[in-house]
Amino acid sequence: MKLSLVTLATAVILGTSVLTGCGSGSGDSSNNSPINNLPAQNIAVEYQGVWASPANGKVWQITSNNVSGFSYTSDFCIKTDELEGISNAELSTYLRLSADGNSLEEYTLSSQSGFNQLLQTFEKATALPNACINNLVALKGQQGYQYNAERDFDMFYQLFAEHYVDFGLKDVDWPGLYAQIAPLLNTASNEQELFEAIAEMLTPLADSHNSIIFENGTSFNVNNKPLMYQVLIQEYAQNNGLPFPLEEDDLTPAIAAQINQYIDQQIQAFYGVVDGYAENQNQIKTAANGQFVWFETNGVGYLRINNMAYFTEQNDADIPQYLFDAWYEALNEALDQVIDDFANTQGLIIDIRTNGGGQETLSLAIAGRFADQTRHAYSKQTRLGSDKTALNQVFVEPLGDSQYTGNIVVLTSATTTSAGEYFAQTMSVMPHVTLVGEATQGALSTTLDWILPVGFELKLSNQFFYNPQGQWLEGSGISVDVEVPFLELEDRENDIDTAIETAAQLLLQ
Question: Residue 38 has what pLDDT?
Fold first, then answer.
């Protein structure tokens, strides 16, 4: 079995991904938790037992000095975590006992941060799920592991069948697709064939948040709308008399190298045009590991946010919450500078057209620096079998020592994805903000992460995302007030950026 180049041409090679949080909780209950007053070698009795999140297929089993994590479906279960000798302080970084003691709450930032967001809630259960008792499957590297392509494919299929947000969005017959592809695998199928079979299943869903990652880092997903680099591939093909989508015979090593060179050149040309609007090239500033770029142009501030993550040089940590804390501090230091520099401008352009996402909580934190008051930004629900969890409303509120609340134009495109879209939606509820450009990618669900026994990492969309009016925006994305196409060849040839000029006109009128 071999993936077609039509499929591969729409695939994204993913970089480091960061799980986006879900929920609006911002309280810090850890300081009042009983575990902070206990010896480090013991976990509080209140924490001990089994805690489950059926909507996410996750469960924790906690004893006096051990924490085990599992992921499960109806028929399969894997052990994902085994933490021995964990202290109370360490446990409270990951999980915090609710005020009533009936649930465990996982937050995106550590207990040291004053701003936070609830990721998921685990309720007390009487026992592990049946699958974890009767069919615990060893992962590669764990004792008892045996490779089985058919089993892993069935696990993948059931995971999506029970948790994917909505197959009707792209009119996909999931059982029918399984019936077509499953027979292609057998006991002799290797890891590459398993990878390709899963990729074929993911293709018709065309969801940026569905992905499979090989152990060597090779990954596959299919976007809902063409991203920046895909637009440039099509542009190159049209300019050079090549068919699009490209067929395998057309993609020789030489042409592939030319396409990569063309993409690099055109992206540099795009940023060159944008930065050319600075009144003085020496006054272009950057901060937060290059994720913020800003300058002034004709009395208007311009701020580009490249990602909603990676705000420090350190992009990995044993405890992700501590990494996010560092990012939170760095982004606020950068925004302090930005807001001070733009205090006397006639308006502000915030450019997230090339923002591929990152961490939802940090996106909300950035938006808080432009908020005039607390407002309902969006709502979320997680699929729960044939039902949904309770609706969770998310609010934006003024954050930091200062906020920029003058007139703002936010520039978006179809390349604006995930946490970048959360930012666009959050900004859109503010009366002093106008959105200009293209509707965003429409990859708005947070991801449910899973690992197959063979070692493949899976991500899938399992949440519903609504604007305050109750519209489900998955696939369609965040709409704009003024439409301006992104990455037009004519703009690059004429050394202009129509979106920036449109934004400036709106702010200066």
Answer: 38
The count of C-alpha atoms lying within 13 angstroms of the C-alpha of 223, restricted to the half-sphere facing its C-beta, is 23
Nearest-angstrom CA–CA distance, 100 and 272 = 55
**How large is the angle between the packed helices 419-428 and 360-368, nearest 10 degrees?**
30
Whole-number Å distance between alpha carbons of 285 and 305: 12
Q: What's the whole-model pTM score?
A: 0.90
CA distance 104 to 116: 15
CB count, 10 Å around CB of 357? Answer: 25
Dist CA 364 CA 116 (whole Å): 10
CA-closest candidate to residue 321, choices 126, 116, 55, 42: 116
Distance CA 357, CA 437 (A): 17
For residue 243, CA distances in Å to 230, 250, 266, 305, 404 come to: 14, 8, 20, 34, 48
- Cβ atoms of 40 and 46 within 8 Å: the answer is no
Q: What is the mean pLDDT of each run of 10 residues along the chain (509 residues)?
A: 34 31 33 39 87 97 92 98 82 84 85 74 96 98 97 98 97 98 97 97 97 92 95 95 86 93 97 95 96 97 97 79 88 98 98 96 96 98 96 96 97 98 98 98 96 97 97 97 96 96 97
Distance between CA atoms of residues 125 and 462, nearest Å: 22
**CA dist., res. 225 & res. 237, Å (int):** 18
Residue 28 confidence (pLDDT): 33
DSSP label at 127? S
Nearest alpha-carbon partner for 8 in 274, 168, 219, 207: 219
Q: What is the DSSP letter of 446?
A: P
Q: What share of the chain is helix, strand, coil (3-state, %, to 5)?
A: 35, 20, 45
Residue type, 363: S
Structure tokens, 481:
């007030």
Q: How many CB atoms lie within 10 A of CB 384?
A: 16
What is the distance of C-alpha 42 from the center of its chain?
35
What is d(CA 154, CA 55) in angstroms, rounded to the nearest whole number? 19
Q: Which backbone phi and psi does 49 adopt, to 5 degrees?
A: 130, -160
- Amino acid at position 186, single letter: N
364 vs 422: CA distance, rounded Å:
7
Q: Which residues contact 254 (CB under 8 A, 6 or more apart)?
A: none
At residue 247, what is the residue type?
E
412 vs 293: CA distance, rounded Å: 16
Residues 366 and 423: beta-carbon distance below 8 Å = yes
Provide the residue type at 414 as one letter: A
How far apart are alpha carbons 105 and 277 in whole angstroms? 46
Write the DSSP string, 6-56: HHHTTB-------PPP-S------GGG-GGGGS-TTS--GGG-EEEEEGGG
